[in-house]
Amino acid sequence: MTARAPGQPPDGRLRQAAAIPPTTGADVPPLSVQELVVRFGGLTAVDRVSFTVRPGTVHALIGPNGAGKSSCFNAITGIYRAAAGRVMLGERDLTRTPAHRMAGLGIGRAFQNLALSPRSTVLDNVLLGRHALGRGGFLATGLRLPWVVRGERRHAARAAEICDFLGIARHLHRPAGGLPYGDQKRVDIARALAVEPTVLMLDEPAAGMNAAETAEMARTIRDVRDALGISVLLVEHDMGLVMGIADRVTVLDFGRLIADDTPQAVQRDPEVIRAYLGADDESSSREEGPA
Ligand SMILES: Nc1ncnc2c1ncn2[C@@H]1O[C@H](COP(=O)(O)OP(=O)(O)OP(=O)(O)O)[C@@H](O)[C@H]1O
Ligand SMILES: [Mg+2]
Predict the structure, then answer these.
(1) Of the ligands numbered here, which is closest to the C-alpha atom of 72?
(2) What is the pLDDT of residues 45-82, one digit of tens each?
(3) Is the same domain home to 165 and 42?
(4) Quick check: is 122 in a domain?
(5) I need a surface site. Which of 21, 42, 214, 260 has the fewest CB within 10 A?
(6) What is the structure's pLDDT at 138?
(7) In the prediction, which pLDDT does 140 show?
(8) Of the candidates 183, 176, 200, 185, the residue with the CA atom closest to the CA atom of residue 109
(9) Closest residue (by CA) to atom 2 of ligand 1?
């Protein structure tokens, strides 16, 4: 991220950010989704959707229940196979890349349903993210060769820095499963950041949070963008959070893209309003926590 030096923190919260140097040495590439199609049997969950996550922006993917957000997200991250279309990270075609290789290519992903190892410490959970960077090798690791030990120390130091940045350093040596929910979400984000991504993908980071926790999560996401200069692709139901932090918003409805614009323009878009009003009867199930 040479091109995009982090700006001054807006509210002084980011004093810790000094401890976390730029995530990668490279410029952040755009993530471009091109005519993406995801099918489940006869159902087209994502229907020729195209949008671009511009470098260093928070890009939200929204839409009523069943609109295809998670399907799109999962196809980008290699969990689902796209029936057609392409996903490009800069010049690199990610379309057929399996999920486990995404981290090494600069895609860091936090999960909607926490996938932490509850008995392991916060540090160990975050270190799992570092493994994607692949060092050492089986034999060298087994023999605990000096460069492996040095590497491990470096990884642990970096993991601790990331936790500090996210405000969870005080929990470093506690079992992740015992932390308050909001902090567990942060551990998951820390793990995603530990792969030094150029794009951080978050599926409903505020699901199950109260208003104060949601506001705090919004600040965290903004901090990640501002301090690291990386892109964030965010699937989220909480409109307050989305409209408050997104630079751009893509709206899906029944698998189709119906809007792709600034938050202000999207909020005024008649088709978006219709899609959300039309889905009003489902709003109670939506609040329970979507898939
Ligand atoms: N694994 C699956 N198998 C079959 N159908 C699926 C699968 N996942 C999603 N679908 C269907 O695809 C459509 C899009 O679902 P998806 O979960 O992507 O929507 P969403 O926008 O994430 O919704 P929500 O807001 O409820 O999370 C829905 O009709 C859903 O029932
Ligand atoms: Mg979903």
Answers:
(1) 1
(2) 999 999 999 999 999 999 999 999 999 999 999 999 99
(3) no
(4) yes
(5) 42
(6) 59
(7) 58
(8) 200
(9) 40
Give distance in angstroms: CA of 197 to centre of ligand 2: 23
Say if residue 150 is exposed, middle or buried (CB neighbours under 10 Å; 0-12, 13-18, 19+): exposed
pTM, entire model: 0.84
- Out of 175, 196, 217, a domain closes at 196
Residues 184, 53 share a domain: no
Q: 64 to each of 39, 143, 193, 278, how far by Cα in Å?
A: 18, 53, 28, 9
pLDDT over 60 at 15, yes or no: no
Are 58 and 119 in a shared domain?
A: no
**68 lies in some domain:** yes
- Distance from residue 35's CA to the centre of ligand 1 (Å): 18
Averaged pLDDT for residues 194-221: 91
**For ligand 1, atom 9: residue with the closest CA:** 71
Q: Residue 191 belongs to what domain range? A: 113-196
CATH number for the domain spanning 185: value is 3.40.50.300
First to last CA, the chain: 34
Q: Could you tell which of 49, 69, 256 is best to mutate to test the pocket of ligand 1, judged by most ligand atoms within 8 Å of the CB? A: 69
CA of 252 to the centre of ligand 1 (A): 12
What are the pLDDT digits (tens) for 214-226?
999 999 999 999 9
Whole-number Cα distances in Å, 111 to 115, 150, 186, 201, 262: 7, 30, 11, 9, 26
Query: Is residue 131 one of the residues assigned to a domain?
Result: yes
Among the atoms of ligand 1, which is closest to the Cα of residue 68?
Answer: 18
Residue 227 has pLDDT above 80, yes or no: yes
Taking residue 69's Cβ as centre, other Cβ atoms within 10 Å add up to 27
Q: Do 95 and 239 belong to one domain?
A: yes
Number of domains the chain contains: 2
